[in-house]
Amino acid sequence: DILVDGKVCDCDIVVTCQVGDPVPLQVKLTNWSKHSVGPFALTMMPYQDYQNGVHNYDLQDAITFVGSNTFYIDTVKPTKDSVYFGALLFLYTGDFYLNIKFHEDNCSRELPMSWLCLPSVHIRATEPVA
């Protein structure tokens, strides 16, 4: 589950926020398997989609993370959750997307080396209301 500014997100929802206001992020990983999973690294990568096949990931002047964009998950037991909190700060207006990737950090190789777990989150940064 992904929450942006307290709102549940999926691929059909555009979350609107204001430039200059920190936007809280919450990612919850639920283990529905019968076995413990992990360790993982959870990485959030913002980008802009130019709608022509080009994704711009060079956004250090437009977006900053409050805290880290990578979180390390040791082990998630069966039917348990692991929740991670962070925040984004948008410096310019525009439509942005957030890729959330899990990277396996375990030598057993039960999962591919790197896999995209969730669809991209669409965030629209707008001018602050005066």
The CATH topology annotation reads as: Immunoglobulin-like
Helix-strand makeup class: mainly beta
Quaternary status: single chain
Rg of Cα set:
16 Å
Shape: elongated
Q: Please estimate the helix content.
A: under 10%
Keywords:
130 residues, Immunoglobulin-like
In short:
With 130 residues, this protein is mostly beta strands. It is built from no helices and 11 strands.
How is the topology of this model organized?
Blueprint: E1 2-4, E2 7-8, E3 14-18, E4 22-30, E5 40-49, E6 55-56, E7 63-66, E8 70-73, E9 81-90, E10 94-104, E11 114-126
Parallel strand pairs: 3-11
Antiparallel strand pairs: 1-2, 1-4, 4-9, 5-6, 5-8, 5-10, 7-9, 10-11
InterPro entries: Ig_TRAPPC9_Trs120_4th (IPR058568), Trs120_TRAPPC9 (IPR013935)
Protein name: TPPC9 protein
Domain Trs120/TRAPPC9 fourth Ig-like: 16-125
Question: Would you kindly provide a written description of the structure presented here, covering whatever features stand out?
Answer:
The protein is an all-beta fold and 130 residues long. It has one domain: Immunoglobulins (Immunoglobulin-like, Sandwich). It is built from no helices and eleven strands. The strands form two sheets. Strands 3, 5, 6, 8, 10 and 11 form a six-stranded mixed β-sheet that branches. The protein is elongated and about 50 Å long. The termini are far apart.
